[in-house]
Each structure stands twice: as structure tokens, then as C-alpha cells.
């Protein structure tokens, strides 16, 4: 059965096209250094926002009009699978991502939930045999159900911890069965509202124990996917333990897990933490911890996780700049953890939104590659830190000098000559490259 009868396969038509159902900048077959745009960008569709999201918000009921919503229960889940793979094929994406409850309804017991999941996983597996679209990552939802009101891996109730762990076990088995390239942990309820009733050390220790159990079980069943942590500072708890990349990295180091995990970095989560998207990517990259990306953006006037489709070309350029410097995303990708706006309720809006996001990152890729090839920014940075290339600076970097030697050196200094940071020049250069890269 088809659910998008009025939509044909999305094609690349170039920057002058006025067709809303065509790529303007993303040509999957374009190459850079012998590698296609599809291989560089590794786009993924988020199952939850695209096929289960009803566009409700705290102030109103859902507005989404979806042709599969005439079904219920397992029939609805099966219809969504049919719609999803039609969508993947027409959009031409290589990957998709899901939580367990996105694809299968939760039952009245864990056993019933697992049975429902098995039915839909079997169906997904059959569809994947005839599709180029693969599973970028999967995970389990250990945050929506009321049982997780006090957390999951960090729950104050050991029975809840056990239930969450059992769901993770099933998630790892599903990932292995479907050939998932990554497995994500997002701690939706792993945090606290107040320290007044919280044993933080026990909660953190238990979270570390759950992650280690997951590593051990993945090894036991031969599931060799990259494990990822997705940081978020708040929502729904007032303070989540995976606040940002820096705090997440410290957590992994403390519990001896830094060689087992990398980070899945979401743009909107970065801004909620008070960082830029590129800051989080950069911090992860310089510590060899950049694994994958949830591609979206927040709204500058709203202080919550709005999950908008990415259209800010400045942001996508700086993001791709970091990803290219990282040598790509390895087994990771760019998953559109983004939802259409509440007023964009038509099924066709799902295509238009993904097209805009894919075009935006294609622009970012091409501009970032030019900036790097021309050393338009790197040259300025190298000059700014050139004093560490020889003399006293090189001795500092090489660890050949201590405080006494530095004092002796400093006592002989006269006026210290500083150089400009050239920030305005750098921003102007980025604008120039954005405006000229596609001028031809």
C-alpha cells in the first residue's frame, strides 16, 4: 500500500529550481575527493518525529494529518513501517533511527511489549532486504512511561532499574538483528529535580553499572555497534547527568567507559546547555569522541527543545567544518531529530522539511570543504598561535620547562607584543564563502 501517492522520488534539480519537491543543493552523486555527498553526510530519518509525532504541544492537541492514523495497535505499527520505507525510498536516504516504542506499541507487560516488538522487527527486517536504507542507530525509550518518573538507570527504585535494564537488553538484541551501526543512550529521566531527596552518588554509580552491563552483553551476543551517549542539559529534569559533552566525557572517564562510547551530539541540546553546536562538536572531536549527530536547530526566542529542521547555513557550515576535520563521522551520520511545525500538518510537509535540511547540510559541506582547502580560517589560527612553534613556546608544549625557567624568561621581557584575533575578518570570510561557493 502507498501512503504518499502524490509524491515522486525526490531528484536533484539545482539551485535555480522552483520545485518544492526537489533538491537544490544536495546531489547525492556529487563528489569531493572521490567521496560522494551521500557518503559524507549519511543522512538519517528519525522514526519518532516523522511517523509517530502528532504535533501536539502543552497547549493543544495534535494537528498532524497522517494517512496511516486510521489504524490502531499493531495494525498502526505495521502501516507505519509501510509508510516509512516508502518515504525512505522516495527521499533517497541511506539511514533511519528509532526507539523501541516508536515502531511497536507498548503492552501491559514487558513480555507483551517484547512480543509486539518482535512482530514489527521481523517486518522491518523483511523491508530492509529490498531497501538501500539501513539502521543508523536504535535505542529504547526509558523515559516516557510513568514507571520512569524517577529515572531509569538512575532510578531510586531497584525494580525500575531492572525493568530499564531488561529493555536495554532487548534493544541490543534488536540492534544486532537489524544490523544497527550504532546504539544510543539518551538519559531522558537520568537526572534530578532537587538534591534535597537525591542520592547523587548512588544514581551515578548505578548509571555507570548499567552502561558497563550493556557493554558486557553486547560483547556476549557479538553486537559490535558503536555505543553513543546523547547529552542534554535539562528537560524533562531540571539537571540531567549527561548535561553536555564535557560532563559526559568526565562521567565516562570516571567509570572506565571512555574507550567504549562516543557522543551523539544534537544541535538543539547544545544550545540548551549554553553552548554553540560547533562547540560541542569541537570538544568531542579534539578528544576523539565525536560519533554521530542529531541534526536540528532550536528557536532563538524559545527556551526549550523545539527540534526544528536545520536551515541555518552558518550553523551547518561550521558543523560540517568540525565533521570534516574529524575525518567524517565513521559509523555515525546526520539523523534529522527534527519535527515539522505544528502548522505544517500535511504529509507532504514531511518531504519538504527533510529536503530543506538535506540541502542545508549539503551547502555546509561544500562551503566547509572550500574553507579548509584554502586554509581561510586555519591560516589565521596557525598565525595566532605561532609563538608555540619555536623558542620558549615550543619548550612549553614539549614539556621541557618549568615555573623557575619561565620566571627567569619572564623577568627579561619588555613590552609583550600582541596580535589581533581577526574575528571580524573570519566572520566576513565565512560570509564570502557562503555567498560565492554556489555563485557559478
Description:
With 440 residues, this protein is α/β, with parallel strands linked by helices. It is built from 16 helices and 14 strands. The protein has an eight-stranded parallel β-barrel, surrounded by four helices. The chain has a two-stranded parallel ribbon with strand order 1-2. The chain has a two-stranded antiparallel sheet with strand order 3-4. Strand 13, helix 11 and strand 14 form a beta-alpha-beta unit. The chain is globular. It starts with 10 loop residues before the first strand and ends with a helix. The model has no long low-confidence stretch (mean pLDDT 97).
Would you summarize the structure shown here?
The chain is of the alpha/beta class and 440 residues long. The chain is built from 16 helices and 14 strands. The mean pLDDT is 97.
The global form is globular
Strand content: 5-15%
Which structural class do the helices and strands define?
A: alpha/beta
Give the rounded overall mean pLDDT: 97
Q: Give, in spatial order, the strands making up the sheet with the most strands.
A: 5-6-7-8-10-12-13-14
Q: Mind telling me the C-alpha Rg?
A: 24 Å
Order of helices and strands: EEEEHEHHEHHEHEEHEEHEHHEHEHHHHH
Low-confidence stretches: none
Largest sheet properties: 8 strands, parallel, barrel
* Number of discrete helical segments: 16
Distance between the termini: 43 Å
Count the E strands: 14
Question: How helix-rich are the residues, as a percent range?
Answer: 40-55%
Amino acid at each position: 500500500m502507498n501512503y504518499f501517492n502524490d509524491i515522486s522520488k525526490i531528484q536533484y534539480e539545482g539551485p535555480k529550481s522552483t520545485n518544492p519537491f526537489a533538491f537544490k543543493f544536495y546531489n547525492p552523486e556529487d563528489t569531493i575527493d572521490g567521496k560522494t555527498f551521500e557518503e559524507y553526510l549519511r543522512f538519517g530519518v528519525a522514526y519518532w518525529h516523522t511517523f509517530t509525532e502528532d504535533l501536539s504541544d502543552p497547549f493543544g492537541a495534535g494537528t498532524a494529518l497522517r494517512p496511516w492514523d486510521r489504524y490502531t495497535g499493531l495494525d498502526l505499527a505495521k502501516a507505519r513501517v509501510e509508510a516509512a520505507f516508502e518515504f525512505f525510498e522516495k527521499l533517497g536516504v541511506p539511514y533511519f533511527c528509532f526507539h523501541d516504542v516508536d515502531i511497536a506499541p507498548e503492552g501491559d507487560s514487558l513480555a507483551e511489549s517484547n512480543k509486539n516488538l518482535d512482530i514489527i522487527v521481523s517486518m522491518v527486517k523483511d523491508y530492509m532486504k529490498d531497501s538501500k536504507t539501513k539502521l543508523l542507530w536504535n535505542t529504547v525509550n526509558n523515559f516516557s512511561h510513568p514507571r520512569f518518573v524517577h529515572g531509569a538507570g538512575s532510578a531510586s527504585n531497584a525494580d525500575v532499574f531492572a525493568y530499564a535494564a531488561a529493555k536495554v537488553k532487548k534493544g541490543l538484541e534488536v540492534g544486532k538483528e537489524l544490523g544497527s551501526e550504532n546504539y544510543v543512550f539518551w538519559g531522558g529521566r537520568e537526572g534530578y529535580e532537587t538534591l534535597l531527596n537525591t542520592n547523587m552518588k548512588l544514581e551515578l554509580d548505578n548509571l555507570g553499572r548499567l552502561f558497563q552491563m550493556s557493554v558486557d552483553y553486547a560483547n556476549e551476543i557479538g553486537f559490535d555497534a558503536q555505543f553513543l551517549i546523547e547529552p542534554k542539559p535539562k528537560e524533562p529534569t531540571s539537571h540531567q547527568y549527561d548535561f553536555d559533552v564535557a560532563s559526559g566525557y568526565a562521567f565516562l572517564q570516571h567509570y572506565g567507559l571512555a574507550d567504549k562510547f562516543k557522543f551523539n551530539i544534537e544541535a538543539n541540546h547544545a544550545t540548551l546547555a549554553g553552548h554553540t553546536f560547533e562547540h560541542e562538536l569541537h570538544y568531542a572531536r579534539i578528544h576523539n569522541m565525536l560519533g554521530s549527530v542529531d541534526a536540528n536547530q532550536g528557536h532563538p526566542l524559545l527556551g526549550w527543545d523545539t527540534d526544528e529542521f536545520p536551515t541555518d547555513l552558518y550553523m551547518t557550515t561550521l558543523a560540517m567544518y568540525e565533521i570534516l576535520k574529524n575525518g567524517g563521522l565513521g559509523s555515525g551520520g546526520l539523523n534529522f531529530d527534527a519535527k515539522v511545525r505544528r502548522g505544517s500538518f500535511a504529509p507532504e510537509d514531511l518531504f519538504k522539511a527533510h529536503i530543506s535540511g538535506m540541502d542545508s547540510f549539503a551547502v555546509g559541506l561544500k562551503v566547509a570543504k572550500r574553507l579548509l582547502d584554502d586554509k581561510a580560517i586555519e591560516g589565521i589560527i596557525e598565525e595566532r598561535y605561532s609563538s608555540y612553534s619555536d623558542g620558549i613556546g615550543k619548550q612549553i608544549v614539549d614539556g621541557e620547562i618549568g615555573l623557575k625557567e619561565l620566571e627567569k624568561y619572564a623577568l627579561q621581557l619588555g613590552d609583550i607584543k600582541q596580535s589581533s584575533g581577526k574575528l571580524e575578518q573570519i566572520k566576513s570570510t565565512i560570509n564570502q564563502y557562503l555567498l560565492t561557493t554556489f555563485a557559478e
